[in-house]
Amino acid sequence: MSELKATPKAISGPSSFIDDRIGAGSFLKRNMRKIFPDHWSFLLGEIALYSFIILLLTGTFLTFWFQPSMGHVEYNGPYAPLQGVMMSEAYASALELSFEVRGGLLMRQMHHWAALLFVAGMMVHMLRVFFTGAYRKPRELNWVIGVLLLTLALAEGLTGYSLPDDLLSGAGLRITEGVAISLPLVGTYITFFLFGGEYPGVDVISRFYSLHILLIPGIILALVSAHMVLMWVQKHTQMPGKGRDNKNVVGAPFYPAFMLKAGAYFLFTFAVIAGLGTFAQINPIWIFGPYNPADISAGSQPDFYMGFLEGSLRLMVPWEINLGGTNTWGTLPLSVIIPALVPMGIIMTGLALYPFLEQWITGDRREHHIADRPRNNPHRTSIGMAAIAFYGVLWLLGANDELSWVFSISLNWTTYIGRVAVFVLPVIAYIVTYRICLGLQRSDAAIIGHGVESGVIKRLPHGEFIEIHTPPADDIEAHMRGKEAVPMVPVLVDSAGIPPKGMRGPIGKLRARMSRAYGGEKIPLDDGHGHDGHGDDHAAIGTGGDEKSITH
Amino acid sequence: MTDNEHEIEQPESRVPKRVIGTPAPGTSMLGAQEARHDSDDEPGVILPDEVKARKAEKIVALCFMVTFAAAIAFLVFYVILPVDSLDNTALSNLALGGTLTLALLGLASGIVIWVRQLMPKYNLVQERHPMATDGETRGYVEETFLKGANESGFVKRKMLRRTLLLASAPLGLLPLVLLRDLDNNTPLPASKFHTTLRHTVWGTKTKEGKNLRLVVEGTGQPIRAADFNSPGGILSVVPEGYEHDLNALAKATLILIKFRPEEIKGGVNKNWTHDGIVAYSKICTHVGCPAALYEQTTHHILCPCHQSTFDAADGAKVIFGPAARPLPQLPIAVDEQGYLIAQGDFAVPPGPSYWERGDAEQLAREEGKSA
Would the keyword Transmembrane be found if you checked this record's keyword annotation (chain B) (predicted)? Predict the structure, then answer.
């Protein structure tokens, strides 16, 4: 057991070299012991971050063999069913990478799995941030960066999915083209510029390739860095609890604890992706065959993050408007435009604007560093759950052929049910979530007011049995007492009954009404008693105040 | 990783016996005393127990040795396992991936146990400071900005400012203009792109000046009408000479269906059929997937992408799904050797809709009347 008394030469030498030149010491002094709060839900975003690093590593490996070319070649590799078949160089090289390069199949499968985990990690991280209100001031900018990252990740996934040029990826590409060409006014222009002429042309793979390996990941990398820097500068939010308030951070220091934990977590993510890439086959492109616009494999499914777009395309009713009839003023294929743009528009725009809308409705311009428990802002939580229900219906319906097959329901009925469910389920989700939130708030109020069931049953002199309640643990109580009423816009009506400026017009009145509904304390924590002067009454129970035990 | 706060030991005296339905002993809802001590130097740093730590160190070492062994195995497998056949590729994948997974897992587990069992538990507190800078700093920045703006003369010198703005406007357009030639091989002005969507290769002739034959997709065999004679039969068909031209196929692929004469309903243009054989565009009018599934008993054509369903016996009318228009019918006939040929191009553009398309069906009907 020897402890380090002085910095070894191997570290002090290079360190002073660097400090002499860039003065890194003062930065390190401030940041080496930076405190990071601990909560399992704070680790969700790290899944996305580490998956991104793994994507860069495996993706670089893939580029060494992959040929992003649509030139036609005849396949003569080891996969017998395709020998002699004409295919694009892209597909042939993806097959070569899979079958003839040691570790190539592993890297390809890991790359695909990491992509799924990347988007999934972003989604759950985003839900965590949303439901705990961690996007509030001062973190709105980081939230908007996050929404941009999610959008870019979808674009990155779409371009990558199309590269192997197999039959399945071609189906996705064809749908992309069908959507692009449907856009009003600019559709044919965009399509012809993207594909270098008519679909499919010979350019789109190499163009998607440069988007996929250079432009989009470059922007993602820049935004991820900004995301990290902002998180670092603003310090992480923390859950309410003992000794934690809006003015401090409680947790473990970056060096050595957090650093090592993060390293271990990266390795875990890496191990899970490697395990999936080894044991769970994904995208077996050799089965699908080369792309041909005349063919399709039944049961074609996109990657999961595109499922909601696929579902909304499937749900849509056949609307198409010809402005000016045969005079061709313009054709609006609403059965493509609406499902392709509206759900994604609602979700992404809604996400990006939510912090600002909430601020407008609550009038809350304070800094927030304590995360909300989802129950304590019931309307926000209900809106989030309604959005999940909306997205979830679309996502499920993206696989309605599989649903119909597995559950033996008529395919058409899955669509009819989905058309109703996409409007009804969000409403139900909203109402149910709202009630659950209030119920949980009541349960908190009961614990604060009455204490916790101790498991000790006592018989009173007159024969009644009661269970002794004890006050909750300090940290639990502090966690619950971290609750704060959702602020409301102050509508101070003056003596003449006139509301303040900005609250008079229809928009101002709407704002005031929304604020009243959204904000306020629904279930006060100390309401369990019906009076204020508690504390003596029940706090002592379990430690001696026997005759005052509470019965339920 | 929150358990450093929730690892609570339940005092015996408080809960004599557990009652079913109540929190178990040790549940954090019931308060408890912290049974640990802070380090002497720094409050909030709880040092681990040395006896436990020594045990944990052995486990960590074991984890790291697993990583060592797995990494060596990876290297060995890379060298000895070839990828010269499918079976060997599968084996190599399993061996390399398995050892990589194990190596990463060992390292990750080892570090986690190291952090949790060998390092102190931390409960350190740091102050937060408001993000906004104080008024004095803001004032200084504002002053400096104004000073610099005035020193630069950008505000005072109108001509400088206006010409600079004027100069940057066209400069911003350059990158946009540079993208104009993205449509490599189209000899058309951009405003005429859509005209190419109106035509398919079915409207062209062979070198001998004859109409194109319908050939079976995949084999390239021409189809003798007399041989395609079992009602309910279906073929995927491509134009002769364009079997490998993906651009042509993306618009011109057909499905060919043989009906009994009495099955054909009013939606089908009978002049465009031959002996109960009807040809429809296979490209779905929704977003362009090949509508490849056919149900013989109901005559339904189904697109597997978004389940648009068309009634093949009735002019491929839409009966379900998001597609808004029927699949266009191709006029077919037979040549002197009895092979199926196209009479000409589709009357309307096949495939998904686009802005410039207009109501081509109505237009075709009107032209048909006037002709």
Answer: yes
Buried b (16+ CB within 10 A) or exposed e, A96-117: bbbbbbbbbbbbbbbbbbbbbb
Could you give the CA distance from residue A53 to residue A359 in angstroms, rounded to a whole number? 35
Residue-wise pLDDT tens digits, A333-372:
999 999 999 999 999 999 999 999 999 999 999 999 999 9
**For residue A54, what are the contacts with CB-CB under 8 A and spacing of at least 6?**
A110, A114, A269, A270, A273
How many whole angstroms separate alpha carbon A151 and alpha carbon A227?
Answer: 15
Q: What distance in Å separates the CA atoms of residue B96 and residue B107, rounded to the nearest whole number? A: 17
Task: Kindly give the pairing relationship between strand A321-323 and strand B234-239.
Answer: unpaired
ipTM: 0.90
Q: Measured between alpha carbons, how far is residue A235 from residues A247, A249, A254 in Å?
A: 11, 8, 12
Judge: B185–A197 Cβ closer than 8 Å, yes or no: yes
Q: How confident is the model at residue A390 (pLDDT cuts 50, 70, 90)?
A: very high
Q: How many residues does chain B have?
A: 371
What's the confidence (pLDDT) of residue B370? 53
Q: What percent of chain B has pLDDT over 70?
A: 88
Question: What span, in angstroms and rounded, lies between the C-alpha atoms of A356 and A136?
Answer: 9
Q: How far is CA A255 from the centre of its chain?
A: 28
- Domain positions in chain A are 42-287+302-372, 442-548
Using a CB-CB cut-off of 8 Å, the residues of chain A touching B41 are none
Establish if A31 touches chain B: CB-CB under 8 angstroms.
Answer: no
CATH fold for domain A42-287+302-372: Cytochrome Bc1 Complex; Chain C (1.20.810)
Cβ separation A106–B100 shorter than 8 A:
yes
Q: Three-state DSSP class for A125?
A: helix
| Closest Cα in chain B to A332 | B355
For B274, other C-beta atoms within 10 Å of its C-beta total 19
Task: Considering only the beta carbons, identify the residue of B18, B123, B289 that sits closest to A250.
Answer: B123
Question: Quick one: which of A314, A494, A287, A319 has its CA closest to A398?
Answer: A314
Of B109, B119, B287, the CB nearest to A174: B287
| B345's tokens | 């191009």
Per CB-CB distance under 8 Å, the chain B contacts of A186 are 355
Tally Cβ neighbours within 10 Å of residue B296: 12
Whole-angstrom distance, CA of residue A394 vs CA of residue B314? 32
pLDDT reported for residue B37: 52
Q: Is the dihedral of CA B42, B48, B53, B59 positive or negative?
A: negative
Q: Which residues pair with B277 in a beta bridge?
A: B258, B274
Higher pLDDT, A34 or A545: A34
Residues of chain B with pLDDT under 50: 1-16, 18-19, 31-35, 371
Select from A185, A233, A236, A331 the residue whose CB has the most chain B CBs within 10 Å, as the one to mutate to test that interface.
A331
In the numeric block, which tokens belong to residue B226?
């007399």
CB contact under 8 Å between A248 and B125, yes or no, is yes
In this complex, which of B23, B109, B286 lies closest to A335 when CB atoms are compared?
A: B286
- Percent over 70 (pLDDT), chain A: 94
DSSP 8-state secondary structure symbol assigned to residue A325: G
Helices A9-22 and A24-31 cross at an angle (nearest 10°) of 110
